[in-house]
Structure formats: C-alpha cells, structure tokens
Amino acid sequence: MASKKYLELQAFSDEELINELKETQSQYQLQKFDHAVKGLENPIELTEIRRDVARLKTEIRKRELAN
Question: Angle of helix 14-37 relative to helix 44-66, nearest 10 degrees?
Fold first, then answer.
C-alpha cells in the first residue's frame, strides 16, 4: 500500500518536485549539522528526512523514464 507522502508527491508538478527536493536536502544538511554539534531531541528525524529525499528522487526518476 502506498504511503500518504507518496500519494501527495504524485500530485506535484515536475518543478514542485525539484523545489521540494532542494528544500528537503538543505533541511537534511542543517539537521545533520545540528545533530553533530549539539545533538537532536529526536535523531530519528534524520532517517525520516533521508527517506523523504529518496521518495522525491524516486518520483522524479519515474517521471523521467515515463517521458
């Protein structure tokens, strides 16, 4: 069964996907830095963000192959 986030990504346009990917990757880098410097309350957030990046890349690649 598809996750809610995956279903939301299918509704995005190509430009929105690319912008969301850039924002999510920059958010991941900031969280990773913060975790290295002072630690995070919930380090599982890093895993969730990394998975979101993978979902975005998968959807972008799927659309590239479809064209």
Answer: 160
Q: Looking at residue 12, what DSSP letter applies?
A: S
The whole-number pLDDT of residue 59 equals 94
pTM passes above 0.90: no
> Do the Cβ atoms of 20 and 59 come closer than 8 Å?
no
Task: Give Cα separations from 31 to 7, 22, 26, 59 (angstroms).
Answer: 25, 14, 9, 23
Token digits of residue 65? 């192959």
Which of these, 54, 36, 55, 35, lies nearest to 45 by C-alpha position?
35
- CA–CA dist 4, 62 (Å, integer): 18
